[in-house]
Design goal:
Leucine-rich repeat, LRR (right-handed beta-alpha superhelix); 4 domains; 4 helices; kinase; 40 strands
C-alpha cells in the first residue's frame, strides 16, 4: 500500500514528465518552424543576373521564363536549383521540350557570369539564342557542366574558358562557332566529355589536348578541322567514344588509336585519311561500331578485323580497298549485324556465302562488282535494309523479298534486272523502294497497294508502261520518281492526296491531258518536273499556292496560256517553260492582248 505522501509524489512525477514531454515536442516544433523560417531566399546577386538574362531574351515560345517572377528565384522559377543552405543558384537548366518547335530568341547575357556558385549550366535546343559566348563565363569557378547546345552562338570559343578548372562536361555542339580550338582547353585536366560537333571550327587539334587524360568522350564531328589525327589520342585510356567524322583530317590512321581498349565507338568517316587500316586493330577489344567510310584509304583489309568480337557495325564504304575479303571476316565478327563495303575496288563476283548466311539487319554492297542473279538470304526475316545498287545483277527479282517482314529500305538500282514490276511481292514495312535504272517492265497501277509506310519510290529509267495509279489518303510518299518510262494516260486528280510529297518527277513519259488543278493543294512540294510529256491546256492558277517550289520544269509539252504571275513561277528561268505550244508571260514574252 502506498502512503498518501507517496501517492502525491507519484502524481507530481507524472505531471512533471508530461510537461517535460510537451516541452521537448514544443522545442522540436519551434526548431522545425525555425528551420523553415531561416531558409535563405534567393541571393539578390543571382536573382539580378537571371533577370538580366531574361531581359536579353526577346521571345520565349517555350514558356519557361514566364515562371521567373517574384522575389525568390529558388522557389518556383523553372530550370533553377539553389543550395538549400546558402540560397545561391547552383543549376541553370533551360532545355527545349522534346518533340516541339519552341525556342528562345535573343542573346546569351554576360550577366550569367555573376552566378558565382553555379555548378551546372545547360542551355540546349533553344535554336535562336545568338551572339558570342561571354568572356564572363570564365568566372564560374565552380562550374562542372557547361552545355550550350543547338542555338545560334557565333564567334570563337573564348580561350578564357580554360580557367574553368572544375569543368568535367563541355558541350558547345550545334552552333555557328568559328575559329580554332583554343589550346587553353587543354588546361582543364579533369574534363571527361568534350562535344564541339556541328560548328565551323578550323585548324588542327592543339597539342595541349594531350593533357586531357581523363577523357571518356570526344566528339568534334561536322566541322572543318584539319591536320593529322594526333597520336596522343591513343593515351586517352578511358575513352569510350571518338567521333572526328565530317572534317578534313589527313594522313594515316595512327597506330596509337589501337590502344583505346575501352573504346566502343570510333567514327573517322568523311575525311581525307590515307593508307591502310592498322593491323593492330584487333586490340580494340570493346569496339562495337567502326566507321571509316568516305576517305582515301586503300590496300587489303587486315585479317585482324575479324577478331573484333563485339563489333556489330562496320562501315568501310567509299574508299579504295581492294583484293579478296580476308578469311578473318568470313569466320570472325560474331556480333556483326550491319556491314557496308560499298564503292571500293572489290570484285566480289557474287554475294559471299558468309554474308548471305549471317543474321544481318543492314547490308550494303553497292558498286562491289556483283554479277549473276539475286540469291536469297538465309535469314531474310532479320533484314531491315539492303543496298545492292550499281552492280551487274541480272534476271528476275522473283521471291527475293519473301519473308523479309521487317524490311524498310531496298535499293537495287543501276543493275540489269528484268522483272514485271506489277508481280513483285513487296513487304508492307517498306519505307524506301529504289529500283531505278534497270530493265523492269509491266504496269505501275497496282504497285502502291498496301504500301502505306512508303515514303520514297524511285522506279525511273525502266520500261514501265500503263497508266499512273490512283492515290489514296493513307500514303506517306515524300518522293515519287516515275521519270524516263513509257507511262501514258492522264495525271489522276487523286495525286493531290499525297499531302507529304516534296519531290515529284514524271518527266520523259507519254502522259497526256491537262495538269490537274488539285495539284495546287500539294503545299509541301519543292521539286516538280513534268517535262517532255504530252500535256496540254494551261498551267493551273492553283499553282500560285505552291510557295515552296524551288525547282520547276514544264519544258517540251503542249501547254498554252499565261504563266502564273507570282513567285516563284515568274522568276524561274525561261528554259523551264520552253518548247511548249503558246505559253506567255514572265519569264517568257508578254501575252498578247485579245
Amino acid at each position: 500500500m502506498f502512503t498518501s505522501h507517496e501517492m502525491k509524489a507519484s502524481a507530481i512525477l507524472k505531471v512533471s514528465l508530461i510537461f517535460a514531454c510537451i516541452a521537448v515536442f514544443s522545442s522540436q516544433a519551434v526548431s522545425l518552424s525555425g528551420d523553415e523560417e531561416v531558409s535563405p531566399p534567393c541571393s539578390a546577386v543571382d536573382r539580378a543576373a537571371l533577370l538580366s538574362f531574361k531581359s536579353s531574351i526577346l521571345e520565349d515560345t517555350t514558356g519557361i521564363l514566364s515562371s521567373w517572377t517574384g522575389a525568390d528565384c529558388c522557389g518556383a522559377w523553372e530550370g533553377i536549383t539553389c543550395n538549400p543552405t546558402t540560397g545561391r543558384v547552383t543549376t541553370l537548366q533551360l532545355q527545349r521540350p522534346l518533340n516541339g518547335d519552341a525556342f528562345m530568341k535573343g542573346n546569351l547575357s554576360p550577366s550569367l557570369g555573376n552566378l558565382q556558385f553555379l555548378e551546372v549550366m545547360i542551355i540546349s535546343g533553344m535554336k535562336k539564342i545568338s551572339g558570342k559566348i561571354p568572356e564572363s563565363f570564365s568566372r564560374l569557378n565552380h562550374l562542372i557542366q557547361l552545355y550550350l547546345e543547338d542555338c545560334m552562338l557565333e564567334g570563337s570559343i573564348p580561350s578564357s574558358l580554360g580557367r574553368l578548372t572544375s569543368l568535367k562536361y563541355l558541350s558547345l555542339s550545334g552552333n555557328l562557332l568559328t575559329g580554332q580550338l583554343p589550346p587553353s582547353l587543354g588546361s582543364i585536366k579533369g574534363l571527361v566529355q568534350i562535344n564541339l560537333s556541328k560548328n565551323r571550327l578550323v585548324g588542327a587539334i592543339p597539342s595541349t589536348f594531350g593533357n586531357l587524360r581523363s577523357l571518356e568522350y570526344l566528339d568534334m564531328n561536322t566541322n572543318m578541322l584539319s591536320g593529322v589525327i594526333p597520336t596522343f589520342i591513343g593515351q586517352y585510356q578511358n575513352l569510350s567514344g571518338l567521333d572526328l567524322s565530317y572534317n578534313q583530317f589527313s594522313g594515316e590512321i595512327p597506330n596509337s588509336l589501337c590502344s583505346l581498349s575501352k573504346a566502343r565507338s570510333i567514327s573517322l568517316n568523311n575525311n581525307k585519311l590515307i593508307g591502310k587500316i592498322p593491323t593492330q586493330i584487333d586490340r580494340l577489344k570493346s569496339l562495337t561500331t567502326l566507321s571509316l567510310s568516305a576517305n582515301l584509304l586503300n590496300g587489303l583489309l587486315p585479317d585482324s578485323l575479324g577478331r573484333l568480337q563485339k563489333l556489330w557495325s562496320l562501315n568501310l564504304a567509299r574508299n579504295g580497298f581492294s583484293g579478296p575479303l580476308p578469311k578473318g571476316l568470313q569466320n570472325g565478327l560474331p556480333s556483326l549485324i550491319s556491314l557496308d563495303l560499298s564503292y571500293n575496288k572489290f570484285h566480289l563476283g557474287t554475294i559471299p556465302n558468309w554474308i548471305r548466311s549471317r543474321k544481318l539487319v543492314d547490308i550494303r554492297l553497292a558498286g562491289c562488282n556483283i554479277r549473276g542473279s539475286l540469291e536469297p538470304f538465309v535469314s531474310p526475316d532479320s533484314m531491315g535494309s539492303i543496298d545492292l545498287s550499281v552492280n551487274y545483277l541480272t534476271g528476275e527479282i522473283g521471291g527475293f523479298f519473301k519473308n523479309m517482314t521487317i524490311l524498310s529500305e531496298i535499293n537495287l538500282s543501276s543493275n540489269m534486272l528484268t522483272s514485271d514490276i506489277s508481280k513483285l511481292l513487296l513487304p508492307n514495312s517498306l519505307g524506301t523502294l529504289d529500283l531505278h535504272s534497270n530493265q523492269l517492265h509491266g504496269s505501275v497501277s497496282g504497285l502502291l497497294q498496301d504500301l502505306n509506310m512508303l515514303s520514297v519510290l524511285d522506279i525511273s529509267s525502266n520500261r514501265i508502261r500503263g497508266a499512273m495509279p490512283e492515290f489514296n489518303d493513307g500514303l506517306r510518299l515524300k518522293l515519287l520518281n516515275l521519270s524516263n518510262n513509257r507511262i501514258a494516260g492522264q495525271i489522276p486528280s487523286s495525286i493531290s492526296k499525297l499531302r507529304n510529297l516534296q519531290k515529284i518527277d514524271l518527266s520523259r513519259n507519254h502522259i497526256n491531258g491537262v495538269i490537274p488543278p488539285s495539284m495546287g493543294q500539294m503545299n509541301k512540294l519543292e521539286w516538280l518536273d513534268l517535262s517532255r510529256n504530252r500535256l496540254r491546256g494551261s498551267i493551273p492558277y492553283t499553282f500560285t499556292k505552291l510557295l515552296k517550289v524551288k525547282h520547276l520544269n514544264l519544258r517540251a509539252n503542249s501547254l498554252c496560256g499565261e504563266i502564273p504571275q507570282s513567285r516563284p513561277f515568274n522568276i524561274f528561268p525561261a528554259a523551264a517553260y520552253g518548247q511548249n505550244l503558246c505559253l506567255c508571260g514572265k519569264p517568257l514574252a508578254p501575252c498578247k492582248k485579245s
